[in-house]
Request: fold
Amino acid sequence: MIIELTRFKVKAGKEDVVKKWMETLNNHMDEVLDTLDAEKMYVETIFREKINGEEYLYWYSIQGEGGINVEESSHEIDKLHVAFWEECIDPNYPPVQIVPQVLMIPNRIRERMK
Reply:
């Protein structure tokens, strides 16, 4: 099982595009959810935060081993997701991996995630 929480910086001036990106994902949730099986993605959540006038997105995910990467997906919503990513995420700001310390998932749920 892969558990991640990662912070990414949004490019300056792309806040409105990020808003549209999040609206697109929320408005096409059925399509988004259809893509998760191939990725072996059990949980994926995007958080948004503004610190000192700069915007950041955080991805939290619980994923099984061996899933495909979103870039490999043939789903149109994933292609759109990747396009938004390339437009909005600052490649000059290294992603910050936040290290998990405690995993609280009941065994009955963990067993279903294998």
User: Anything to note?
Assistant: Residues 15-27 form the longest helix (13 residues).
